[in-house]
Specification:
- The complex is a heterotrimer.
- By secondary structure, chain A is α/β, with parallel strands linked by helices.
- Chain A has 12 helices and 19 strands.
- In chain A, strand 13 and strand 14 form a beta hairpin.
- Chain A starts with a helix and ends in a 14-residue tail after the last strand.
- Chain B is mostly helical.
- Chain B has a single domain, classed as ABC transporter involved in vitamin B12 uptake, BtuC (Orthogonal Bundle), CATH 1.10.3470.
- Helices cover about 80% and strands about 0% of the residues of chain B.
- The chains are: A alpha/beta, B mainly alpha, C mainly alpha.
- Chains in contact: A-B, A-C, B-C.
- Chains B and C meet through helix 5, helix 11, helix 13 and helix 15 of B and helix 4, helix 8, helix 9 and helix 11 of C.
């Protein structure tokens, strides 16, 4: 029984080896399981970018143009399975170029594989500073550092009238959100704003009534929440039902995503958030013309709007293409060195990695106004008038 | 199969695994490590669940403590990994003695739920411990060389299986089986039931903790969610039950079979893998509730009627 | 002081919903001796039924509640009749493993059918609230609490005062007794599990009104239900209510005074403690 199964396993794995394409990219993504909601951006965007690049002729290596192929495995939102799948991609499928998973804890674990096997991984799903602070040479990230997520929001706060004087910081206890909180704590410390509540909560939490009651009791002006979309949906609905009325609140995730606005309807209004990417025609791209066009085509093909996760994923694929072309080689170590030297403009923004392997993009503050996502505050200052302070729930 | 044949077969399997690095690919080595660790876990669950009849959901606590022993030793104190393994075992055995005493007084579903509760409590406590990296987890130093891990986990499985083989023919083992069949009668017969149960619990703590330690060092990342994973505990039970609980080789066999099935599923029809795994569990429990070992023994005698008989025996 | 009052009110309202979540689990466990690990997945399905009737047909979630209950009743009846009845006399953890397998299948089928998108049931009155001695009380939570109370009471009436209900209770004592009522045990078992599933469906419909839903909420809800079932004990549906209220209040207080990362330590810690000290539940008879 056992030996026969092993044989089946071996033959199955061997058979997959025969269809090797010239340049193969590989990724293990959360297509099912609790992270599937955001994981799908990566699966879809990787595929989209590969198709588009192939349609444009492929990748130039030497005198020939090679097509890209993509192998995506489903990690079922299981970190351990994800690690094992990356090993499979590298050692069994002989894939030398890895694209990343979603979420910081996955990227943390999976980057050990790229380091172990000396193959580069470019990931657009993990922003936690921990990923890049270990001195690893083969991991690159296209999300801006987690510690900076709230920086632009805090800059905006000082320009609001009347400026918020008290702030509550709530954050989930996972790698990404803890990093966000560290950065935010420092950034708030440099302003006159007083932090009246600095609270870590469990990533499994679904009930925020106690914290909201506390916030209401303290009459906090601004609430900053670093958490997951599920928690933020509950947070806003429970804030409404308990009639908690801060002057503003802002969330690390959710606000830029279409399904978040669909789930909350008009209750999503006035929520602030941030994004490292807005689908603007000003962001030019070699394969997709520009970010706006990309967003339209993406929506047409997959039936939902892309957000920064998708754009970041496309940038990962393009970074590989640019690096392979500039290294003029398929050797993983040479490509790794080329990635480190990259500097190009994409639909996602300017891709240039720092020595730790992460890029830096400014976070644009966004707000949901009448059901639409509006860019409020960017690196060049105010873009659009924020709706502030937000009206009481009873007066909407 | 005759016992002698079984041992020869087992020796062949061990030899096969030991030489995988020389002929198999890295993926096969990795599959081997994973399967061996799962088999060790199923085998040690067998001691408390299969022989003693206590369906523990607390074995993932032992596994997690083993992992954290290694992780804390390596990351927080820069100690060698061997020290970490010992630390993990000590933690797990302490846990088994301290909580085994009250919890092992419960029977059946109550014991199952109590141990399930303990797993949840440990997850939540460790998520709040600074030394364990809270819920963010700990990143262990990179360990290259999967061969070492394969040999380690193979050795661990062999030792665990030898321990189970010893149990199955020792006075201690008969005591455990007596407890499983009728605890009151066992006590009347002079078995010190409390002591026996706790020793069984502690024994599976030792092996599970070692498995957890090896796994953590190998994967190089540990967080409370994956360390104290309840579904891993359920998998241990399924593998043991699938192979044949209360037998020497059944649990390891069940673990290899199910690990291979889920590995193939995860690398092929990826999105349906989980559903299929769920269906396999349901079907296997309904049609062969005493596991593969029992199937192999009785299928020849009953043929297809074997499945029918199983259903007839257990349906209402 | 006012904060404490508000927290207590929050906890009680949450507790009512908790109680309803656990009610079906307790019934199935107490009568059939099946620990149903798929209970949370059934709650999740109930929430989705309510969601689709609300967004697709524009039904009020409270009007969709009986629909969710009926559909879940049918599903539960079929699961027991054609799956669980086949293993009910096997060693106890066989039925437990089967329910685990069912949980996996239901969860992933739900993802295929409903997608992993996060959903909410957000009726226009979802934010309406009133002041009760200084505490803000959301109307939906009060309604949900009321429904939970009513269903608990209805279950008690059914089990204690109808012939079928008495047959179900007799089954919990012993199997032969059920036959004395002239009921086919196969159908009686299926009926019992069906009622348990219907209660899960009701809990799901209410859960969707106060919280977001996605295919993966089940496992966590099963855990909560266990804690409540253990605290209250398996004897009377009324005790489940007390267990739910107790847990709701304790969690709310923990989040405020110890910290929101400690609620699981406390609620599952209580579960283990109660089991060790009084395995029959806080209110149950001593064994």
């Amino acid at each position: 029984m056992k030996t026969r199964l092993l044989c089946a396993l071996v033959t199955l794995l061997l058979s997959s080896k025969l269809s090797a394409a010239p340049i193969e990219l590989g990724a293990s993504v959360q297509l099912t399981g609790q992270f599937a909601n955001t994981g799908r951006y990566y699966g879809d965007a990787y595929q989209f970018a590969v198709d588009k690049i192939n349609a444009a002729g492929g990748v130039k290596v030497g005198n020939s143009r090679e097509k890209l192929s993509l192998k995506i495995l489903d990690s079922q939102s299981d970190v351990n399975l994800s690690v094992r799948q990356y090993v499979q991609l590298v050692s069994q499928d002989k894939i030398n170029f890895l694209l990343g998973p979603f979420a910081s804890d996955f990227a943390l674990a999976d980057s050990a594989i790229s380091e172990k096997y000396n193959v580069p991984m470019i990931q657009g799903g993990g922003a936690s500073d921990q990923i890049f602070s270990r001195g690893y040479k083969f991991i690159f990230g296209t999300l801006p550092p987690a510690t900076d997520y709230f920086q632009s929001t805090i800059d905006l706060m000082s320009q609001l009238k009347p400026a918020p004087t008290t702030v509550a910081l709530l954050y989930a206890d996972d790698a990404f959100d803890v990093s966000v909180a560290e950065g935010t704590r420092k950034a708030v410390g440099k302003t006159p704003v007083k932090t009246v509540l600095d609270q870590r909560y469990s990533s499994k939490a679904s009930d925020f009534n106690s914290m909201l009651s506390l916030i209401k009791n303290q009459n906090v002006d601004a609430i900053l929440v670093a958490g997951h979309e599920t928690e933020i949906l509950n947070f806003i609905r429970q804030a409404k039902s308990l009639n908690v009325n801060p002057k503003m609140y802002s969330f690390t995730v959710g606000v830029p995503s279409a399904d978040f606005r669909a789930a909350l309807g008009s209750d999503a209004n006035y929520a602030f958030g941030m994004t490292s990417w807005v689908p603007s025609p000003a962001l030019k791209d070699e394969y997709f013309v520009n970010a706006e066009q990309f967003a339209n085509e993406y929506k047409k093909r997959f039936g939902y709007e892309p957000d920064y996760h998708a754009a970041s994923a496309v940038a990962d694929v393009e970074a590989f293409v640019k690096a392979i072309e500039s290294a003029n080689s398929l050797d993983p170590v040479k490509v790794r060195d080329a990635i480190a030297k990259l500097d190009f403009d994409s639909l996602y923004g300017r891709i240039r990695f720092n020595t730790a392997g992460q890029i830096n993009l400014p976070q644009t503050v966004v707000q949901i106004q009448k059901g639409k996502l509006v860019a409020i505050y960017g690196p060049k200052g105010l873009l659009e008038k924020p709706l502030y302070p937000m009206p009481d729930w009873g007066k909407r | 199969m005759k016992p002698a044949l079984k041992f020869i077969f087992a020796a062949l399997v061990v030899g096969g695994f030991a030489t995988v690095p020389s002929w198999g690919s890295a993926v096969l080595v990795q599959f081997g490590i994973n399967a061996l660790i799962l088999a060790t876990l199923a085998q040690s669950w067998n001691i408390i669940g299969g022989y003693t009849g206590y369906p523990s959901f607390g074995n993932s606590v032992f596994y997690g403590l083993g992992g954290y022993g290694v992780a804390i030793a390596l990351v927080q104190y820069q100690l060698p990994s061997a020290v970490g393994l010992i630390l993990g075992v000590v933690l797990a055995v302490l846990f088994a003695f301290l909580l085994g005493l009250p919890v092992l007084r419960l029977r059946g579903h109550y014991f199952a739920i109590a141990t399930l509760g303990l797993t949840e409590v440990m997850t939540a406590i460790v998520s709040n411990l600074d030394i364990a990296g809270r819920n963010v987890g700990l990143i262990l130093p990179l360990a290259k060389g999967d061969t070492l891990f394969l040999e380690l986990s193979l050795a661990l499985l062999v030792v665990t299986t030898l321990a189970v083989a010893w149990i199955s023919r020792s006075r201690f083992g008969f005591g455990l089986i007596a407890i499983r069949e009728n605890e009151v009668a066992a006590a009347v017969m002079g078995v010190n039931t409390t002591l026996y149960k706790i020793l069984a619990f502690a024994l599976c703590a030792v092996f599970s903790a070692l498995a957890g330690g090896i796994h953590a060092y190998w994967i190089t990342y540990l967080d409370p969610g994956s360390a104290f994973d309840v579904s891993l505990n359920v998998r241990m039970i399924i593998m043991a039950v699938f192979g044949g609980p209360g037998t020497i080789f059944g649990p390891a066999l069940g673990a290899f079979a199910l690990a291979a099935i889920s590995e193939i599923l995860a690398s092929k029809i990826t999105s349906l893998a989980s559903i299929f795994f769920g269906v396999v569990i349901v079907v296997a429990i309904i049609f062969m509730p005493r596991g593969v070992a029992d199937l192999a023994q009785n299928f020849r005698r009953f043929g297809w009627r074997y499945f029918q008989e199983n259903i007839k025996a257990h349906r209402v | 002081m006012q904060l404490l009052w508000q927290i207590l009110v929050n906890g009680v309202l949450l507790g009512g919903l908790y109680a309803l979540m656990a009610l079906g689990l307790v019934l199935v466990w107490g009568v059939l001796n099946i620990v149903n690990l798929a209970h949370g997945a059934l709650i999740m399905l109930g929430a989705y039924v309510c969601y689709y009737f609300f967004t697709g047909l524009g039904w009020d979630p409270f009007a969709a509640l009986p629909v969710a209950m009926s559909l879940l009743f049918c599903l539960g009846y079929l699961i027991q009749r054609w799956v669980l009845n086949l293993v009910i006399r096997a060693p106890m953890f066989n039925s437990l493993l089967v329910t685990f397998g069912l949980e996996v299948v239901i969860t992933y089928l739900a993802q295929l059918l409903f997608s992993a998108d996060f959903r909410t049931v957000n009726p226009s009155y979802a934010g309406a609230n009133f002041s009760f001695f200084g505490a803000t009380v959301p109307w939906v939570r009060v309604l949900a609490f009321g429904v939970a109370l009513a269903l608990t009471f209805a279950l008690w009436l059914f089990l204690d005062h109808t012939r079928i209900g008495r047959a179900i209770r007799a089954t919990a004592q012993n199997l032969v007794a059920a036959r004395l009522y002239g009921v086919n045990p196969r159908q009686l078992y299926a009926l019992t599990f069906g009622i348990g599933a219907a209660l899960a469906g009701a809990a799901g419909a209410l859960y969707g009104v106060v919280s977001q839903i996605n295919p993966y909420i089940g496992a966590g809800l099963t855990g909560k239900s266990f804690a409540i079932a253990i605290i209250g004990g398996l004897e009377k549906s009324l005790y489940v209510l007390v267990g739910g209220l107790f847990l709701g209040v304790v969690e709310a207080l923990t989040a405020l005074y110890i910290g929101p990362t400690y609620t699981d330590v406390v609620s599952f810690g209580i579960l283990v403690l109660v089991l060790i000290v009084r395995p029959t539940g806080l209110l149950g008879r001593t064994a």
